[in-house]
Amino acid sequence: MIMENSGIKKIVNYFNKYYEMNDEIPLLEFLYSENAMKELVFTGYNEEDEYLSKRINIILNWFNKNSGRSIEINDEILNTLGKYVNNTPVDYTLIVESLDECNENIIINHTLTGCRVESLMGRFAYMFDNKLRIKYDNNLYLNNHPFIEAEITTLSDKSGKINNLFTSVESSIPKITCNTVNVNNEIPLNKILVGLSNGEIYLKYKGKILLPILNNMVNLFSGFSRVEKFLMLIYISVAKPYQSLLNQFISNSNYMPRITYKGMVISKAKYRVLIDDFSKESQKNFNLFKNEFYRYMEEQGLPDHVGIEQFGDVQYLYLKNNRFLHIFYKNLKKYKVLILEELGFEYDCEKHQGYHFSQYVFSICKKNSCNYIETLDEDVLLPKDSVRMIDYSDTVYLNLYTREIYADEILINLSEMLPKILKEQDFFFIRYWDPIFHLRLRIRNCGEKKFIITEEILKAVEKLGYLDSGVIFRYTTDNFLPEINRYGGEKLYKYVEQYFIAESKLIIQLLSCKEEDIIYISIKCLLLILNELTKSDLVESKKILKSIIDNTEPIADSTQEVYKKYISDRQNKKVYEVRKNIIECRKILTQMANLEPKTVSKRKFIGSILHMFVNRIGKNSTISENQMYKLLLRIINRDTYVKLKIR
Fold first, then answer.
1. pLDDT class for 583, splitting at 50, 70, 90?
2. Using CA atoms, how far apart are residues 124 and 71, in angstroms rounded to an integer?
3. CA proximity to 177, closest of 208, 151, 215, 207
4. Which helix (H) or strand (E) holds 619?
5. Which is it for strands 218-219 and 186-188: parallel, antiparallel or unpaired?
6. What is the model's pLDDT at position 530?
7. I want to staple 178 with a disulfide (CB 3.0 to 4.6 A). Which of 210, 406, 446, 603 is the partner?
């Protein structure tokens, strides 16, 4: 059954009105002709399906009843769902897919149906070449340009010239990644044709029907381009009847429970890796692995394409009869990488549950990205994008799940034990609330000691009594892919990481202080960040704060009181006690101030640095993040006034 929705009906009706049945029209002409701009308007989706509604209600009731707990999929839910399939035999196995960092998705019949908890319905992809920077042409939008509707423009890396999406030279035209039987590459938008067959709209390139691949999903109703909305509709029209609608029903959930099937943790999407180039030896190893894993799935009665454990964007598959060989499936920015790892020790499923470490054995990449296989022990020639991954492959990335009230105690006690474990390494921490609260520890440059260091940290946690008592009720390890673009590019990120290490030391030192001292020193440090990164430009500091403040929230009475105390007495004895760490932070901030962010505006960059300081302080300050920024703005306004008055 093809999903019916108002968006597709409008497209079909428009095609029938202006074109003949066998016509195949260039995609850009079809979407941006004068008639299309007037009549082909993309709005929301209002699909109505009796069977779909019943299925969604069943799933909703199931989640509401079990929300917040670990859920075992049983025959009852599967059989109940099976009654509403419109006479179509469907395996309604529910699978959780983790994207990025603990954002869980629902997969039905191995097909993505859900969205991230914080997203809205209608998620679709940035389907453009990663080498091109995507910008919005706001001037055209504001001037009501007749042909462009807040359309995306591209910045050509070669010429540095800004080109409109549909008037630029072919080399600068964004490309969409499409998937069909014999096509798996980037296709220029101006080469795609639109046709109609048996009442269904289709896309074609060089005689082959295309289906857009949808990933890196975002909200459809946020002013994105006609091309993206059109592709989303095409995707929905050829997808399963239940493909997209579960989104809007689960998107308001605050927490997606952990789901298991027959005692196994359900992992990420399909176990299917398409590799173009293998050496004979690696092909042999892979086939042995594949056969072993299939036997294991049959013995356990697992649904097809189910993994065992999930680490960020890495699918981890455990072998019952070969505890030394494991496979990781990484979906990187531009291509997929299949990596086999050999642990060098026997993997005990119960003892080592929740973490994994080892050295790489070899890497196998998709054709066109890298058509060779090399060991990673010595000098290795790899694509630039792979090098970034390998640079951080020696990073310990440990997540400790605990209640928020225990976080400070854990950080203080661990910080006293870590120097004995980390003789040559430093660490920084982050507090996360997504989907539930946990602490993240990141330790760089571990090299071959990566597993040993992790094991020592976990022993320290156990020695402190946090595991037996349930204070830390879960721990996992993850792959570490730093947010380099968020922090201005690779050159600047090196200093950002050094700063995070220094800032973490400072904040851990503050955690044992009284609340009023923590608030006071936090104000000092946040003002220091602004002062150093703007080079003492008070006007720029005010603009940065105004850009991140939520003005719908009035300044609180408690914030007013803190402001009065701070202004009346700008001296605090505790500042002297932590001065060494403050000086170290200031030194790195000064170095960062001399570098310009390449991937983000300077204001956004500084906003991110401010946010991470507030994140690390956590709820030790009763002042919320927004109130803290309002407080800083008042202080800077006053200082500006005083300076002007003195002049």
1. very high
2. 29
3. 215
4. none
5. unpaired
6. 96
7. 210
What does 195-223 look like in DSSP terms, one character per residue? EEETTEEEEEETTEEEEE---S-EETTTT
What are the tokens at 473? 């009720």
* Category of 463 on φ-ψ map: left (φ > 0), alpha (ψ -120 to 50) or beta: alpha
Query: Residue 609: is its pLDDT beyond 80?
Result: yes
Q: Is the pLDDT of residue 15 over 60?
A: yes
> Which fold would CATH assign to domain 396-477?
Alpha-Beta Plaits (3.30.70)
At residue 469, φ and ψ (nearest 5 deg) are -80, -15
Q: For the chain, what are the domain ranges?
A: 6-46+123-247, 50-110+254-261, 267-391, 396-477, 505-646
Reading the block at residue 585, the tokens are 């932070």
Six-digit token string for 581: 């760490």
Query: Angle 515-533/538-548 helices, nearest 10 degrees?
Result: 120
Distance of alpha carbon 524 from alpha carbon 528, whole angstroms: 6
Cα(30)–Cα(233) distance, rounded to whole angstroms? 15
> CA–CA separation, 409 vs 239, rounded Å?
50
CA distance 444 to 392: 7
Q: CB neighbours (10 Å) of residue 132?
A: 20
CA dihedral 270, 276, 279, 282 (to 10 degrees): 0
223-258 residues labelled b (16+ CB within 10 A) or e (exposed):
ebbbbbbbbbbbbbbbbbbbbbbbbebbbebeebbb
Give the CA angle between residues 497, 500, 505 to the nearest 5°.
Answer: 135
3-state secondary structure of 548: helix
Look at the block and give the residue holding tokens 């006007």.
Answer: 539
Give the tokens for residue 569: 């007495």
Contact 97, 107 (CB under 8 A): yes
